[in-house]
Design brief:
Elements: H1 11-47, E1 52-62, H2 64-68, H3 84-87, H4 90-96, E2 103-110, H5 113-119, H6 128-139, E3 143-147, H7 150-153, H8 166-197, H9 202-214, H10 219-233, H11 241-265, H12 269-277, H13 282-310, H14 314-318, H15 339-347, H16 353-383
Antiparallel strand pairs: 1-2, 1-3
Helix pairs in contact: 1-16, 8-11, 8-13, 8-15, 9-11, 10-11, 11-13, 12-13, 13-16, 15-16
Transmembrane segments: 20-41, 168-194, 214-236, 242-264, 303-325, 359-379
Protein name: Phosphate transport system permease protein PstA
GO biological process, one term: phosphate ion transmembrane transport
Length: 387
């Protein structure tokens, strides 16, 4: 028996429990990092083939018949190997350059998606006759994989080899601009009023509780709200960046308000008291002293809120921003789609070539989101004032 009066018989047991808890915590971190790394590795591995696109070199004949039926511009044996989307551009080429009529030339043209999948070693549906024709071209060094510029220069297409994300990127930018213009000033001003000017009464508490609850409700409910108010009640154009941005602004507002209030609350009261001592008004103190000090925190919260809005799909599906939109919108009232909705659409397509494009789209949106979050961290670190 231990004679030490300070001896605690439960000490060894408590230390063992602490070690187990520490081990479990480390295991959780390692497991989380493992899942994250596996996800990133699998996504990059799946997206890598989308960097290249198959092209074949065939003779193109510009005839009157080809101007009406573009498939006749290519020799019959090689016709199935050429993308139908590229063949459809032949009449436009002849219209823009009439001198092409009656000529023929050897050109590198976009290959069909089945040829692309075959060259990349994926599942394909090429018939033996088409494989023989492709082998003939390969023997002549007339088949190659080139950098896939189409992915960033084209909009959506029902033919996977011709599909890109340009229209979705433009739609995402316009939608986020509307969201930022509406949500940032409204959110910051609401936070300033609640934190600096509002009286401490039941009405203010009721508003605060509801704002905190709004930040936690499912995003699809904001889509239903946008559908019923902006489209059905106000008659704003469906599928437009205007409605999408307004809907996402509703979703982002609570996040900006909560983060802005936290940033304002972190400003020491001594600054406010010093302002009163110098005879400044409440407005002067908030505008000239409190807001500039709190701005890094406000910007950080706002950027994170916008990054979350950019990755949202559910509310935009409800308001119709998942429609097939091949062309980039020219204004915020034209029909558009956004990058998450485009990825969602491709994920449901039966053609296997869309798998790599879906993964590539996810990599693009992940890169943008990481960039936005990195910007938020940079702003916070650069302008942070420690008291």
């Amino acid at each position: 028996m231990n004679e030490n009066p300070f001896y605690d018989p439960t000490l060894r047991k408590r230390h063992r429990s602490a070690r187990i808890f520490k081990w479990l915590a480390r295991s959780s971190i390692l497991l989380t990092m493992g899942f994250l790394l596996f996800f990133l590795f699998d996504m990059l591995r799946t997206a890598a083939p989308a960097v290249q696109q198959a092209y074949v070199q065939v003779e193109i004949t510009y005839s009157k018949k080809a101007a009406r039926f573009s498939q006749f511009a290519v020799e019959k044996d090689y016709r199935p190997l050429v993308s139908r989307a590229w063949l459809r551009t032949i009449p436009k080429q002849m219209e823009d350059n009439p001198a092409l009529l009656g000529t023929s030339e050897l050109r590198w043209v976009l290959a069909d998606d089945q040829v692309d999948q075959y060259l990349k070693g994926h599942h394909h549906n090429l018939k033996q006759k088409e494989l023989d024709a492709l082998a003939t071209l390969q023997a002549e060094n007339a088949v190659e994989l080139q950098l896939n510029n189409i992915f960033f220069n084209n909009g959506d297409s029902k033919l996977p080899e011709f599909a890109g994300i340009q229209s979705a990127i433009v739609g995402s930018i316009l939608t986020l601009l509307v969201t930022m213009v509406l949500a940032f000033p409204l959110g910051v001003m609401t936070a300033v009023y609640l934190e600096e000017f509002a009286k401490d009464n039941p009405i203010t508490h009721f508003i605060e509780v509801n704002i905190n609850n709004l930040a936690a409700i499912p995003s699809i409910l904001f889509g239903l709200l946008g559908l019923s108010v902006f489209i059905n009640l106000f008659g704003l154009p469906r599928s437009s960046p205007l409605v999408g941005g307004m809907t996402l602004a509703l979703m982002t507002l609570p996040i900006i308000i909560v983060s802005s209030r936290a940033a304002l609350r972190s400003v020491p009261d001594s600054i406010r008291q010093a302002g009163y001592g110098l005879g400044l008004t409440k407005l002067n103190i908030v505008k000239d002293h409190v807001l500039p000090v709190a701005m890094p925190g406000i910007l950080t919260g706002s950027i994170i809120g916008l990054a979350q809005a950019m990755g949202e799909t559910a509310p935009l599906i409800i308001i119709g921003m998942i429609a097939f939109i091949p062309d980039s919108p020219g204004s915020i009232t034209e029909a558009a789609t956004v990058l998450p909705a485009q990825i969602y659409t491709w994920a449901g397509m039966p053609e296997r070539a869309y798998i790599e494009k879906t993964a590539a789209g996810i990599v693009v949106i992940l890169t943008v989101l990481i960039g936005l979050n990195a910007s938020a961290i940079y702003l916070r670190k650069k302008y942070e004032i420690k008291w």
